[in-house]
Amino acid sequence: MKIIKVDTYEEMSFTAAQLIIQKIQEKPNAVIGLATGSTPLGLYKELIQDHHNNGTSYKQIRTVNLDEYLGLPTDDQNSYHTFMKENLFQHIDIPEEQTHIPNGQTEHPEAEGQRYEDLIQGLGGVDLQILGIGHNGHIGFNEPGTSFDSRTKIVELANSTRKANARFFESMQDVPSHAITMGIASIMDSKEIILLASGTSKAEALQQLIMGEVTEDSPASSLKLHDNVIVIADKEALSLVDIEK
Length: 245
Ligand code: F6R
Hints:
single chain; alpha/beta; seven-stranded parallel β-sheet; three-stranded antiparallel β-sheet; 7 helices; globular; binds fructose -6-phosphate
């Protein structure tokens, strides 16, 4: 695991954007795995700005998102479909049919998990996966205790995750209790992974990831078993880890 320590959230976002743009230049039809949440917002802004200023094209890029809430209509303000459209897709030249997000409205959850796995395989697998990290070490919506063998599936969100995400909803009751997420094994199939983290609220999760053991109690620790992972984190997120810049 390579760790890039930066000073600020903006530097984290810029550094990650440069790596993605480089990947697109090398492979214009790359499959990029995307995350939602607050962490990648700056990265998406950088990609949009670069698209406008330098013309990096997404016409052949395919994207697969990690997760979606279960039961929210696709056009709900809090669905990850809406998040991705508003924060990235509508600002770049990617054809909508090349963007993929699990279907949170499915009536056949198991079939949807398999469909999503087949879809990713059909695209040739994920070339570069972007991840955030939960306070409890989750990646995607794989909460502590998730098997490292897990594949795309329906999961119950940890109470702490629902609380952390309640900031986007009117009330805690509105936060969905379940989501559909790529599993740990699905994420680990990615050829390259970039995990982003910013702020002191992520310091314990990064300490556990970097200095702790590999255990299913800490889903992100699975990444230590992958040989092409870059962690880009600011100094607050790395404040409990003893590494030089
Ligand atoms: C989102 C996702 C989650 C988030 C994590 C951190 O698609 O898979 O694992 O990356 O919950 O969220 P933020 O960035 O909001 O702190």
